[in-house]
Amino acid sequence: MKTKITMSLLLYFTPFINASEMIYTPNNPSFGGFSGNSSHLLGVANAINDYKAPASSSAFEEESAIDRLASSLESRLISQLLADIGTGNTTGNLVTEAFTLNVQEEGSGLAVIIIDNETGESTKINVSGLNPDL
């Protein structure tokens, strides 16, 4: 009987407990979480990231004035060669330090052959339907 009274008093003075369903809220803003967490999460990610970029003197070396001039001149000569083809001259070639460009009449079209002077590899481009201005 003593235990029944003790249990009754204990249950009587126990505060009421309210419960509801659990709701999941994501933390990461990439997955719908609070966008204010992004700087914190980026800081944590950078803190645990141990990747170090390979050391290099320069990612890009600036081209010298002579190299720019040579590149511009090569571009101009190639443009002139292709313009000559458009005006009726169906053959031509251009030899530079790096490559050789040959344009030949072949059948009903033109063949543009590019030869790498260092490796000897060649690429052939067939152009058909090109009607030079006569």
Question: What's this, in brief?
Answer:
This protein has 134 residues and is of the alpha+beta class. Helix content is 33%, strand content 20%.
Kindly describe this structure.
By secondary structure, the protein is α+β, with helices and mostly antiparallel strands. It has a domain at 66-128. It is 33% helix and 20% strand. It has 3 helices and 4 strands, in the order αααββββ. The chain has helices spanning 2-12, 38-48, 65-86; strands at 92-95, 99-106, 109-116, 122-128. Strands 1-2-3-4 form a 4-stranded antiparallel β-sheet, covered by helices on one side. The longest helix is centred in the middle third of the chain and has 22 residues, at 65-86. It is rod-shaped. The model has no long low-confidence stretch (mean pLDDT 79).
Structural class: alpha+beta
Determine the oligomeric state from the structure: single chain
Give the proportion of residues in helices. Answer: 25-40%
Number of helices: 3
Amino-to-carboxy terminus distance: 122 Å
Helices and strands, in order, run as HHHEEEE
Number of strands: 4
Rounded mean pLDDT is 79
Reading side by side through the largest sheet, how are the strands ordered? 1-2-3-4
Measured on Cα atoms, how large is the radius of gyration? Answer: 39 Å
Summarize the biggest pleated sheet. Answer: 4 strands, antiparallel
What characteristic shape results from the CA principal axes? rod-shaped
